[in-house]
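Need residues for this backbone.
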């Protein structure tokens, strides 16, 4: 049997486990699969597979490696994995804005895969992906000039720690009938149950790092260096899927009817846009699914096109997009296998 030797680094985390699930769902042509995590997780079993300790010397004889690690771990290990001959798809922010590393969403800019000089491909931020998938066809038609985006980001964006914290706080609040206190070692800046927290990432000169990332990544993905983007990111007490309210101004006229036509034909988009019938995109509808759900399409009072988009942050925002990149690389004949069985 022929196929590719695949590794997942960060396999014990929520995105790493989702990547393993998506590989199997999509029958990815893997002839061998190895899982890696930190030394403290080495020896853990995930199904029939045993987790190995990730290190610079661990990545021999692999064709493709998907990384889902903190930025600092990616900076240390990704170059070693690429130097060992693997093609690396990295979910961290470590390499996204480097000019010689393509930042890719296949539905948006697959042509960027034609140049992979460092054998590293960056996966965008999950909120960026939720905006970019529906925005790209609109941008191609009318040229986006300016946008305002407000995100509503689930706790799984902070990993398993965030999920566990929400459940613990919900149980506490349910028992006491009072809003919970912020626990020690919290994943968030405030209690998350029964709350909204407009603080995602670290503060940098008035904006949070998540907001800066989204604006910069949109410019790179859309090849729109002059795009003016105002972004506010909010952590909300939902488990999976991020929602984003977008108001976009375009260079050329684009009304709501034409936007619906473009989005209905766009790959990776599913319209859920019948508010009269109660059909609006929600996080529960998007969770566990592949498409980006888009609705509430309208012109606002300022003449901007407004829409609401929701996508599963663990799938299209991370694991699924990485595997779709790998599939596209194979289609383009850019991934070779070290072994044939």
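Answer:
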């Amino acid at each position: 049997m022929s196929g590719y030797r695949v590794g997942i680094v960060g396999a014990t985390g929520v995105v790493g486990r989702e990547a393993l699930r998506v590989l199997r769902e999509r029958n990815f042509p893997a002839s061998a699969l190895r899982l890696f995590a930190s030394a403290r997780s080495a020896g853990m079993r995930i199904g029939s597979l045993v987790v190995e300790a990730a290190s610079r010397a661990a990545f021999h004889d692999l064709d493709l490696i998907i990384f889902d690690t903190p930025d600092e771990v990616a900076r240390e290990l990704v170059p070693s994995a690429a130097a060992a001959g693997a093609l690396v798809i990295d979910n961290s922010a470590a390499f996204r804005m480097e000019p010689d590393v393509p930042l890719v969403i296949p539905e948006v800019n697959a042509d960027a895969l034609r140049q992979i000089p460092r054998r590293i491909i960056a996966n965008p931020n999950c909120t960026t992906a939720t905006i970019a998938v529906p925005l790209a066809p609109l941008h191609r038609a009318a040229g986006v000039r300016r946008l305002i985006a407000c995100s509503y980001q689930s706790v799984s964006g902070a990993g398993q720690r965030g999920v566990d914290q929400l459940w613990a706080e919900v149980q506490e609040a349910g028992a006491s009938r009072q809003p919970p206190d912020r626990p020690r070692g919290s994943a968030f800046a405030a209690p998350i149950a029964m709350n909204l927290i407009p603080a995602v990432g670290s503060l940098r000169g008035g904006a949070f790092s998540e907001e800066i990332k989204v604006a910069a990544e949109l410019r790179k993905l859309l090849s729109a260096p002059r795009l003016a983007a105002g972004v506010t990111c909010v952590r909300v007490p939902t488990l999976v899927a991020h929602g984003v309210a977008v108001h976009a101004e375009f260079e050329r006229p684009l009304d709501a009817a034409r936007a619906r036509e473009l989005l209905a034909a766009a790959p990776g988009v599913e319209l859920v846009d019948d508010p009269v019938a109660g059909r609006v995109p929600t996080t529960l509808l998007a969770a566990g699914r592949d498409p980006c759900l888009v609705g509430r399409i309208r012109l606002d009072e300022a003449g901007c096109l407004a829409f609401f988009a929701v996508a599963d942050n663990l799938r299209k925002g991370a694991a699924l997009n990485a595997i779709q990149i790998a599939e596209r690389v194979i289609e383009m004949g850019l991934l070779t296998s070290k072994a044939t069985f």
